[in-house]
């Protein structure tokens, strides 16, 4: 049963988002656009990878459950459901943990090799590095943007988000290079695809506040996204420390000072 409207003391609707071939922030951007809301209306405890079929809880402010349910007729990448009204919205970090089922496809190895690899993983574990999901897959890593934000280098952070990068698709490279060449914000907003929601948020900030108001422009980016850049820097520090720990003491067993 879909609830028709929120009780007066519960301003948020909490729901489950199922998605495939979309990361969480892109999926939220699609939901927001279909509902004519800003992405700041949505909250979630963490991001889920694009390369997976995922389920996670989200909250939305300013929209009844019925309108969300109607999106299922139009969503191509997933579905929404399991609605309930709650007093508070979700924030990044509001989660107990994750549960995964990992599937390896097109494995070119015999059974003995697979069993040996599984035994090694079970007995020796693995170094818990943060991977591409946290840092992105382009030459400009999210942790580079994060350190610029931490240093209050607002212009550098905005430029790192907007500038072109080697290896990206022609669709995005062309519009990035055109904006870098002309600095025309209005034309860029016409050219940048709607799914480039972070870049468009900055450009809309420039249009509203002026092209030299980098801090104000960045403040238009969804808070969860800005936090993700900072968390990416924290993750990069963790990776470096984990490598140093293994280099100094090996990975065969715990040593004094480890958290186990």
Automatic annotation (TrEMBL):
Coiled coil spans: none
GO cellular component, one term: nucleus
Gene3D superfamilies: TruD, catalytic domain
Protein name as annotated: TRUD domain-containing protein
InterPro entries given in the database record: PsdUridine_synth_cat_dom_sf, PsdUridine_synth_TruD, PsdUridine_synth_TruD_insert, TruD_catalytic
Biological source species: Hemiselmis andersenii (Cryptophyte alga)
UniProt keyword terms in alphabetical order: Isomerase
Gene Ontology MF term list: pseudouridine synthase activity; RNA binding
CDD domains: PseudoU_synth_ScPUS7 (cd02576)
UniProt cross-references to SUPFAM superfamilies, sorted A to Z: Pseudouridine synthase
Alphabetical list of NCBIfam families matching this protein: tRNA_TruD_broad (TIGR00094)
Every TRUD domain range: 125-260
């Amino acid at each position: 049963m879909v609830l028709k409207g929120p009780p007066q003391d519960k301003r948020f609707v909490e729901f489950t988002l199922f998605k495939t071939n979309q990361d969480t922030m892109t999926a939220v951007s699609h939901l927001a656009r279909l509902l004519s809301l800003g992405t700041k209306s949505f909250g979630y405890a963490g991001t889920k990878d694009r390369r997976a079929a995922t389920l996670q809880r989200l909250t939305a402010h300013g929209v009844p459950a019925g309108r969300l349910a109607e999106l299922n007729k139009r969503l191509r990448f997933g579905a929404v459901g399991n609605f309930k009204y709650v007093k508070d919205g979700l924030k990044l970090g509001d989660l107990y943990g994750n549960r995964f089922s990992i599937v390896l496809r097109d494995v070119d190895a015999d059974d003995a090799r697979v069993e040996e690899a599984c035994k090694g993983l079970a007995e020796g574990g693995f170094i818990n590095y943060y991977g591409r999901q946290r840092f992105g897959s382009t030459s400009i890593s999210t942790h580079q943007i994060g350190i610029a934000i931490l240093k209050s280098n607002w212009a550098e952070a905005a430029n790192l988000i907007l500038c072109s990068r080697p290896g990206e698709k022609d669709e995005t490279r062309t519009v990035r290079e055109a904006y870098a060449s002309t600095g025309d914000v209005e034309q860029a907003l016409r050219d940048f695809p709607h799914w480039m929601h972070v870049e468009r948020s900055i450009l809309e900030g420039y249009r509203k506040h002026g092209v030299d108001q980098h801090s104000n422009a960045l403040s238009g980016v969804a808070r969860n996204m800005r936090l993700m850049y900072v968390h990416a820097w924290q993750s990069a520090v963790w990776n470096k420390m984990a490598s140093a720990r293994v280099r100094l003491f090996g990975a065969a067993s715990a040593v004094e000072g480890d958290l186990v």
